[in-house]
Amino acid sequence: MKPIYKFISLIFTSLLLSACVGKSPTEIPVISVISSETPIPQASATPLALPTFTFIPTNTLPPPELASFPYLPVLNDALLKENLLLAAHIYADTVGHIQGDEICHDVGIYNDDSYIVISCLPDFTYPAPIGTLDATQSKFLHHWLETFQHFEDPSIHGLLKFAGTGTAEPEFSDLVSMQAMIGEIEWAAHEYIHRGGTPSVVFHARSVLSHQLNKWLDDSSILKFEVMDFSDACLSAPKPNEVCEPIITQGFRIYYIVNGLMYEYHTDVWGYDIRQFGEPRAAPTQGAGG
Fold first, then answer.
1. DSSP secondary structure string, 48-74?
2. In whole angstroms, what is the distance from residue 39 CA to residue 64 CA?
3. pTM beyond 0.90, yes or no
């Protein structure tokens, strides 16, 4: 039987059944006949639309905050910038980020020899944050200003900034001396009192030697140090073409031992002037460090 006759027969049968049970023909279910030639819709191969994220790089660093621990080589915004001559932002946290081991402060020295020290640690203020340079500090500061160019020296521990008006580039020992002055001022802001022990200048001079040799030096490199009254302002270790004022200058003579050689350094009391004396010579057989 042809398909069309089968379809008519199916409709006729459905009508008879409907009449037998008393149902309306309108309730007869409609049966759709799909030709074998009709294409069957296929699932789309287009993936689902996912949310996209755009990364926008930026070179803008957030400004430092007063009560935070900013790892940024910039001065704290809370530090006054007008008439600023020598300034430093210093931070360190080398003992596993344990609260109480952090160091974070800014020191600014101004053209009237005043200074201010600001902490960037939370819940801490200095007992004596404002003061004035003493005569020795003022003397060295203004000597540096007349001698060296202005510069900014960023490092992993912050920033040293200097508004010099001179023409010479500072040597590494000069940077250490400026940092020594910054350290003395920060110490004074704590109202600490030096109680003996190894003077800080011994470690400042060791930093200069370490930089010169490109070698890390520990305390075993320190052979000895002694207080000295040098016969001139050049600590009896004049630089080429330097004119030395013949005035008694108190300081230290320090000896270091590195790789079997002994190095002698002359410094003032504070580390504002650090000079190597002569060439290294063979170390004594006793007390040699590495």
1. PPPP--------PPPPP-TTS----SS
2. 68
3. no
